[in-house]
Amino acid sequence: MADHGNDVPSCYGKLEIVFPKGEDGLRHSPEKCLSCPHKTPCLRSAVDSSMGREMKEKIVDKAYKTGMINFLERWSKKKLLKSSGKKK
After folding, report:
1. CA–CA separation, 34 vs 5, rounded Å?
2. Which of 7, 34, 48, 58 has CA 20 to 30 A from 28's CA?
3. DSSP 8-state assignment for residue 70
């Protein structure tokens, strides 16, 4: 993650705060986040975090189970997600 200095709120990039699951089981940004000037980079940071990668892996698995993608697509997407999480 990039260094964002001290000018960002303490919730910056925290997936469960800035993109929590709603009662419907889907993720939504809270109202207070929509007016935040850091909204876009914050959400990107949250989704690129290890928790965000886990969320993406679950989405890929769900797509495979429902037949939206085939085994090869699932394997490829999961490999890409795993490699994006490695420190360079």
Report:
1. 21
2. 7
3. -
Domain extent, residue 56, equals 50-88
CA atoms of 40 and 13, how far apart (whole Å): 10
Question: What angle, rounded to 10 degrees, do the helices at 50-65 and 71-84 form?
Answer: 180
> Which residue type sits at 50?
S
pTM score: 0.74
Tens of pLDDT, residue by residue over 43-56, are 999 999 999 999 99
Give yes or no: residues 73 and 39 share one domain: no
Task: Specify the DSSP element, H or E, that contains 84.
Answer: helix 71-84
> Would you state the structure tokens that stand for residue 13, as one six-digit string?
């990039």
Element (H, E) at 15: helix 15-18
Q: Are 42 and 13 in contact (CB under 8 A)?
A: yes
Q: Are 39 and 58 part of one and the same domain?
A: no
Per-10-residue mean pLDDT, the chain, length 88: 70 96 93 95 95 94 97 96 74
